[in-house]
């Protein structure tokens, strides 16, 4: 389940359904419980294998009662097990962050995450 992407344990993973396969894109929504000033996000791919590693991504943010607007960030990550970081040019106030997986590193219809963490203003 999605809670495994925020449990602080890189050995556990969130993974999309593989039977039946669900087509891309996939997303993971983080509820920050209250609006905070977000500076970015880190994504740790699964460490045991490449299956589901996010390649192309978009990051969105919103507050309660508002739809997601344009992506705050987008790009493509290399197919490796290293921690990935999205840093925003300017912080944004958000309660919800949505990480969208547009493609998977090996071209399969999956997405996974060992850990996802939010970078906030202190």
End-to-end separation:
29 Å
Biggest sheet character? 5 strands, antiparallel
* Gyration radius, in Å: 14 Å
Poorly predicted regions: none
Class inferred from helices and paired strands: mainly beta
Count of distinct strands: 7
Tell me, what's the shape?
Answer: globular
What average pLDDT do the residues reach?
Answer: 96
| Helical segment count | 0
Across the major sheet, the strand order is 4-3-5-2-7
In percent terms, what proportion of residues is strand? Answer: over 45%
Order of helices and strands: EEEEEEE
Helix fraction, binned, reads under 10%
Structure explained in plain terms:
- The chain is mainly beta.
- The chain has no helices and 7 strands.
- It has strands at 14-15, 26-44, 56-62, 73-76, 84-101, 112-113, 115-120.
- The strands form 2 sheets. A 5-stranded antiparallel β-sheet has the order 4-3-5-2-7, with no helix packed on it. A two-stranded antiparallel sheet has the order 1-6.
């Amino acid at each position: 389940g999605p809670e495994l992407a925020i449990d602080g344990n890189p050995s556990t993973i969130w993974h999309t359904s593989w039977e039946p396969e669900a087509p891309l894109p996939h997303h993971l929504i983080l509820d920050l419980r209250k609006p905070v000033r977000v500076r970015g996000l880190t994504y740790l791919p699964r460490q045991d294998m490449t299956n589901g590693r996010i390649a192309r991504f978009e990051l969105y943010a919103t507050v309660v009662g508002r739809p997601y607007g344009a992506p705050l960030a987008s790009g493509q990550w290399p197919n490796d097990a290293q921690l990935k970081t999205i840093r925003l040019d300017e912080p944004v106030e958000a309660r919800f962050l949505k990480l969208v997986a547009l493609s998977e590193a090996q071209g399969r219809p999956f997405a996974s995450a060992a850990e996802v963490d939010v970078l906030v203003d202190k």
